[in-house]
Write a structure and sequence with these properties.
alpha/beta; Nucleotidyltransferase, domain 5; five-stranded mixed sheet; 48% helix; Rossmann fold; 583 residues
Length: 583
């Protein structure tokens, strides 16, 4: 750690960026966490987010969306001072940090379009603003506003024509929904950040020729241009530097192009440029009360070491039989893949003792009121969520008893979110958000054994008093500096497709999770004679299974067994304890 450090934090409706600098502007660390809008986040949520950021800092600049009034600043300052009591703290809005990033101490106009939208201008000591009135009253030109109007058009077209438009189908596919009523249910539960994340679908529809979406994008770009002109006129600026920030402008080149063209018609003297640097740098600069010389972020030595460790992982090695894959016939490929699956059984057998230790640890925790949480990223995270989701209907347990935590959140279940796995802080914050406590067990799942999200989750779980398990498929990894309560490394070997851990590593992980959760449930008495007596009979198949189970156990015909279950509200355990009179 450098002698003098500066932490910059910028939070918005979609994400929170942070950067740690030394007094020369050299990057010591940086990362990204979830949303931090002062108006939409509770004190507890913000405190939990701040708690996973670097602690030992000399200066901290915390600039969040929604920090508009003096009362807002007082609230944010109180939270920031509590998080960094020894630091000199500066607070404000993300517009201020964005301005500092884009223009430093200079005059000009900053146009921000992400989840929301706002235009800020500065000339000398005078500041003007247009837009940015929140997602209910304003934010025209932002992602939420655009997506809300697009969703309304989808519904209107269906009401008039009775058919799903290509855009409606694309939105359903994006959300993994099957029919329009499910979209209505989703919208009623979604927050503004989730709605705004549909923006790429709208832009793809416009590119594919959707005239309504083309017009919507044109109108919203026009709104931003009009806001810019209004700010420039109020400040008396004609030749003005304009900087574009926010995901909608920086990630959708077509939107920025529309804005440039429309602004040029109204304000030809504007010099428009994109600003892709994180607003966290501006936050750090404001914390120093002046501009900071900011170099391009350099790779940290820990990241380099981590990358080297990943390269040596067993799952990253080249399979000796993979060199001729593209020359094999379909039959030869299938035979090779089937043969490779034999390694899964061997790998599991090699870890029987450690699996048994993990089962005992989990069963003991659950029997005393604890919970089991899986933490993983990518394939590993999806497998954890899958196993957790199947426990309630199979064993009749409450949904919170076994939970899956995946880097990137629910959207990462159906869409790639590789970058989400690189943040230890996000893993730690996820554990805090799930209320991990003493008595719980957290099982980290990482094929390589070094995924930052997973390691951060395990470390935070240990701090909170929970027991910890690490499941990997990399017996060649470096030992954990402070070993977790149980660790096992399934030796599945190199994948046929190098690094594709959804193959053997994924299969072995799925079986291992089956073993952990199912054996723990058996130890808790959730299974009798091979029957899942605590199942929830919530559909035809499960009611049929419950009927056969009761019929066999009590020697009844199926109709009597069904009547017994109906009388006991389809509670199998209750039915088994209440044999019909005369039977």
């Amino acid at each position: 750690m450098a002698n003098h450090t500066i932490l910059g934090v910028e939070g918005g409706g979609t994400k929170t960026d942070w950067v740690l600098l030394d007094d020369t502007g050299r990057v010591l660390g940086e990362g990204q966490l979830g949303a931090a809008n002062l108006k939409l986040s509770t004190d507890t949520q913000l405190s939990q987010l701040f708690a996973v950021l670097p602690r030992e800092v000399n200066e901290a600049g915390v600039f969040l969306a929604g920090c508009l009034s003096e009362n807002d600043r007082a609230r944010l300052r109180r939270l920031a001072v509590a998080a960094w009591p020894a630091a000199r703290v500066s607070v404000g809005s993300d517009c201020e940090s964005g301005f500092a990033t884009a223009l430093g101490d200079g005059d000009g106009i900053v146009v921000i379009s992400g989840t929301g939208a706002v235009v800020h201008g500065r000339k000398g000591g005078r500041v003007e603003k247009s837009g940015g009135w929140g997602h209910i009253l304003g934010d025209r030109g932002g992602g939420y506003d655009m997506c809300r109007h697009a969703l309304r058009k989808v519904i209107l077209r269906y009401d008039i024509e009775g058919t799903l438009s290509p855009l409606a189908s694309a939105i359903l596919a994006e959300l993994s929904l099957n029919e329009l009523p499910q979209l209505v249910d989703w919208v009623n539960q979604a927050d503004k950040m989730q709605v705004a994340r549909l923006a790429p679908v709208i832009f793809r529809a416009a590119d594919a020729g959707d005239v309504e979406m083309q017009e919507l994008i044109e109108h919203r770009a026009g709104d931003l241009a009009r806001f810019t002109v209004a700010v420039a006129q109020r400040l008396g600026m004609e030749s003005v530097d304009v900087r574009l920030l926010g995901g909608l402008l920086t990630k959708e080149p077509g939107y920025a192009a529309h804005y440039r063209r429309l602004l040029a018609e109204k304000l030809p003297g504007a010099n428009v440029e994109l600003c892709t640097r994180s607003g966290a740098f501006g936050a750090a600069a404001l914390a120093r009360k002046g501009a900071v010389h900011m170099e391009n972020p350099a790779a940290l030595s820990s990241e380099v070491a981590s990358a080297g460790e990943l390269a040596s992982a067993a799952t990253e090695q080249v399979h000796p039989r993979a060199e001729e894959l593209e020359k094999m016939s379909a039959g030869e490929l299938v035979a090779l893949f089937v043969e490779e699956e034999d390694r899964v059984r061997v790998a599991l057998a090699a870890c029987k003792d450690r699996l048994a230790d993990a089962v005992e640890l989990i069963a003991a925790a659950l029997s005393k009121g604890g919970r089991l949480l899986y933490a993983g990223a990518g394939t590993s995270g999806r497998l954890g969520v899958l196993d957790a989701s199947e426990i309630p209907p199979t064993f009749g347990t409450p949904s919170e008893l076994v939970q899956g935590v995946i880097a990137g959140g629910a959207s990462a279940l159906t869409h790639s979110a590789e970058a989400a796995e690189d943040s230890r802080e996000s893993g730690a914050l996820a554990m805090t958000g799930r209320g991990v406590r003493a008595g719980d067990v957290v099982c980290g799942i990482a094929a390589s054994g070094r995924t930052p999200f997973v390691i951060g989750a395990l470390a935070r779980a240990r701090q909170l008093g929970a027991r910890t398990i690490l499941l990997t498929c990399n017996p060649t990894r470096n030992p954990s500096p402070q070993p977790w309560d149980v660790e096992f490394d399934l030796p599945t070997g190199a994948e046929i497709v190098t690094g594709s851990t959804r193959l053997k590593a994924g299969t072995a992980t799925k079986v291992a999770l089956n073993i952990l959760s199912t054996c723990a449930m058996i130890r808790l008495g959730k299974v009798r004679g091979g029957a899942m007596v605590n199942l929830r009979a919530t559909n035809v198949k499960l009611r049929d299974r419950a009927t056969r189970m009761v019929a066999v156990a009590l020697g009844l015909d199926t109709e009597v067994a069904r009547e017994l279950l109906v009388a006991n509200h389809w509670d199998v355990v209750a039915a088994l304890s209440r044999r019909p009179i005369g039977k």
